[in-house]
């Protein structure tokens, strides 16, 4: 072997020895110790923790506590069972070993009977009016021994009885903020012990003191209400009883208490003020009285809230959101009922008033039904290129149409009579919840048309006398002179339809209101025919026209059949609105826009 290879072999051997030594030195075992049935500040548990911290072989000690179980995690150079053997006897004697292996040690706290100066034969265990017997555990606090009593949830209540004053330790969870190992803030709680005075047995009647209430906004006010009284409860008699009164209240101004009492809101009201009352700078929340017997201790409690309210006759109360909501809803119902009643009363009054008017109109509707007027009479109104038509029936009823005698063109119908030289028309207004009548008195006279010899009626509607010709076969009026105008339109007098068929506007065009209701639909066919349907806001068909059409100089020319082979002429100026090279809309008479479908 060369010298160089020998040096390398020696160096490698030394490195292996060094690594083995380091590996042995760094060999550690994880150990877990669990301690059940304990408190966080149990002296035995505290002593075990202190021993672990002082042991140089114990590394990385971490402890947790949950539901009366403490868990200790650390590393040790030996196994867990070997570690347990090394712990001093005085540190182990207060624990019961449940199980053990190389990694886990399970322990349980051994209960130790408390040592007190209380006589064992005392019926109340040395504390009058508040017996502290059958103690589970004790602890020292502020230099005094407190007796602990384990509850069903495993939590412990601690009490002390000294010179007739019973005090209690309350552990309160206080919200706080902590920092974890990653320097991140998180919400948590910390336990804080609060000492309260439960009862003062040797103090005189009228003695008072305070304790913090469960509600952070309030304070419990204690007072000795009576002593050495006798009461009966559940068939037993007690002759030496103390009555303790506890009233929960807080100081507030009237403005602070009532600032939200006049609103119906269920979300903005502070819960602090619910089911309370205010008087003389204080808000009262609840009141109880407790009774304690010298030997037995607590006997019973009574809710005296209603009695306390009676002691404050000038109190101000804030109601709960539920009460406020119920009262608000009831008020709404009452207002709605009153409004409905007013509507019914108003409607009844209007109906009664209209009935009186109708009755008066009916009384003035006098005359006779002239049998000679029976038939259908029409007048051609050249201004609107349409007929006005009266139909008088022998039973005294009539109908009045415009354009033609289609049902959708019926304007009014009712009863008719003749009185002297006037037509009397009595008819109701349509679509009314209350029946309303109108009575028209229209001057009229009979003539025989000078041009065709047919009987006619001249009716004065106020816009001028109109000559209505008979549509039925009727003989001329006897002893009536010939008079009148030629009211029969002639086909020769109606100009022929002019213009061309504009293919840019053929198709279906619809107008709608802002709410989407169809107003009218124009259909312009390529063969020059067309239709127009007009609707009410409720969708009722009001007019249905059929016509021929042409376009001439921006005007839509229309020709329709007026009846008896006669033609009626009409025209609509329109504007074409284009988009993308095509007509998308047409505007009739500068306001009625129709969209292409």
Strand order of the largest sheet: 18-19-20-21-22-23-24-25
Shape: elongated
Q: Please tally the helical runs, counting DSSP H or I stretches of 4 or more residues.
A: 7
Cα-to-Cα separation, first versus last residue: 107 Å
Q: Please report the total strand number as a whole number.
A: 34
Mean pLDDT: 82
Helix content: 10-25%
- Given helix and strand content, the structural type is alpha+beta
Radius of gyration: 54 Å
Beta-strand percentage? over 45%
The low-pLDDT segments are 10-26, 113-121, 261-271
**Largest β-sheet summary:** 8 strands, antiparallel, barrel
Walk me through the structure.
- By secondary structure, the chain is α+β, with helices and mostly antiparallel strands.
- It contains seven helices and 34 strands.
- The strands form five sheets. It has an eight-stranded antiparallel β-barrel with strand order 18-19-20-21-22-23-24-25.
- The longest helix has 44 residues, at 321-364.
- It is elongated, with a radius of gyration of 54 Å.
- Mean pLDDT is 82; it is low at 10-26, 113-121 and 261-271.
């Amino acid at each position: 072997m060369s010298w160089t290879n020998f040096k390398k072999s020696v160096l490698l051997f030394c490195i292996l020895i060094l690594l083995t030594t380091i590996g042995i030195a760094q060999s550690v075992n994880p150990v877990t110790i669990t301690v059940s049935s304990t408190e966080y500040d149990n002296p035995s548990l505290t002593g075990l923790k202190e021993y672990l911290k002082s042991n140089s072989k114990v590394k990385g000690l971490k402890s947790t506590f949950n539901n009366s179980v403490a868990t200790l995690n650390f590393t040790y150079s030996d196994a867990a069972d070997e570690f347990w053997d090394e712990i001093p006897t005085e540190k182990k004697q207060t624990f019961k070993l449940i199980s053990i292996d190389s990694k886990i040690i399970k322990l349980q706290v051994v209960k130790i009977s408390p040592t007190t100066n209380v006589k064992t034969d005392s019926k109340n265990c040395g504390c009058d009016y508040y017996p502290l017997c059958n103690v589970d555990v004790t602890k020292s606090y502020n230099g005094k021994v407190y007796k602990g009593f384990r509850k069903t949830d495993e939590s412990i209540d601690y009490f002390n009885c000294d010179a007739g004053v019973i005090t209690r330790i309350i552990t309160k969870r206080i919200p706080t903020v902590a920092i974890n190992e990653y320097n991140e803030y998180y919400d948590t709680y910390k336990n804080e012990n609060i000492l309260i005075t439960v009862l003062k047995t040797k103090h005189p009647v009228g003695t008072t003191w305070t304790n913090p209430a469960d509600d952070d906004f309030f304070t419990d006010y204690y007072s000795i209400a009576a002593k050495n009284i006798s009461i009966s409860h559940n068939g037993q008699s007690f002759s030496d009883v103390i009555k303790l009164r506890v009233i929960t209240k807080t100081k507030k101004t009237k403005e602070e208490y009532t600032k939200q009492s006049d609103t119906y809101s269920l979300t903005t009201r502070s819960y602090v003020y619910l089911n309370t009352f205010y008087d003389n700078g204080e808000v009262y929340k609840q009141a109880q009285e407790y009774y304690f017997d010298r030997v037995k201790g607590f006997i019973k409690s009574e809710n005296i809230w209603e009695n306390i309210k009676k002691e404050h006759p000038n109190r101000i109360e804030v109601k709960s959101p539920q009460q406020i909501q119920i009262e608000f809803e009831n008020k709404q119902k009452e207002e709605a009922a009153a409004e409905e009643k007013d509507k019914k009363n108003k409607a009844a009054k209007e109906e009664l008033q209209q009935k009186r008017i109708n009755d008066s109109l009916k009384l003035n509707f006098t005359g006779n039904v002239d049998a000679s007027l029976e038939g259908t009479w029409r007048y051609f109104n050249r201004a609107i290129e349409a007929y006005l038509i009266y139909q008088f029936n022998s039973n005294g009823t009539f109908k009045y149409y415009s354009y033609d005698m289609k049902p959708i063109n019926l304007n009014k119908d009712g009863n008719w009579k003749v009185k002297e030289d006037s037509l009397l028309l009595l008819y109701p207004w349509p679509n009314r919840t209350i029946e309303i009548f109108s009575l028209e008195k229209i001057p009229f006279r009979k003539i025989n048309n000078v041009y065709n010899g047919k009987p006619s009626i001249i009716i004065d509607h106020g816009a001028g006398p109109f000559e209505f010709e008979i549509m039925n076969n009727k003989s001329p009026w006897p002893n009536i002179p010939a008079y009148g105008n030629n009211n029969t339109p002639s086909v020769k007098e109606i100009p022929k339809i002019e213009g061309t068929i504009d293919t840019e506007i053929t198709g279906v065009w619809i107008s709608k209101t802002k709410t989407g209701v169809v107003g009218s639909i124009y259909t312009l066919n390529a063969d020059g025919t067309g239709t127009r349907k007009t609707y009410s806001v409720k969708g009722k068909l009001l007019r249905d026209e059929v016509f021929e059409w042409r376009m001439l100089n921006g005007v839509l020319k229309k020709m329709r059949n007026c009846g008896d082979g006669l033609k009626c002429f009409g025209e609509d100026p329109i504007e074409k609105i284009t988009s993308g090279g095509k007509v998308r809309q047409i505007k009739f008479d500068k306001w009625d826009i129709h969209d292409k479908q």
